[in-house]
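Researcher: Here's a chain I'd like modeled. Treat it as a single chain, no partners, no ligands.
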Amino acid sequence: MVLFKTLINRDMWMNPLCDVWGVWGIYRYNTVTGQRILTSECIENFFLLMPYIVLMFWNFEEKIFGKKVYIGKIILKSIQIAFLSSLTIELLQLFLRLGTFQISDLFFNTIGGLVGGIIYFLVNAVAERIRRIRN
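Model: Modeled as a single isolated chain. Structure tokens:
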């Protein structure tokens, strides 16, 4: 899903550095007409890496965290993995000229990955509590 949305389903861009700062809100301003245009880029980027981080932690929990999982370790690892994954995607978009390189995409993908790590921790904590109650 991540590759399809960010690399595979894209058209070629002649100037991938035309909008480096990107869109930081849900509105983009048309400089010609002065109108606000509703855009969902920030929301899409926020939600893009959430399931990616949850599934990565779920599949590789022992390799990433070792035996004991702490919230601080989850926050640090989710920020690292989300940022590096997002940076890889953005650099591929830049070098392959598929989309534009945007700092806002890095930010919203990283925050979404952080929220995904927190969701993983909360679900894991609830599941552990349920296991303890049943035993």
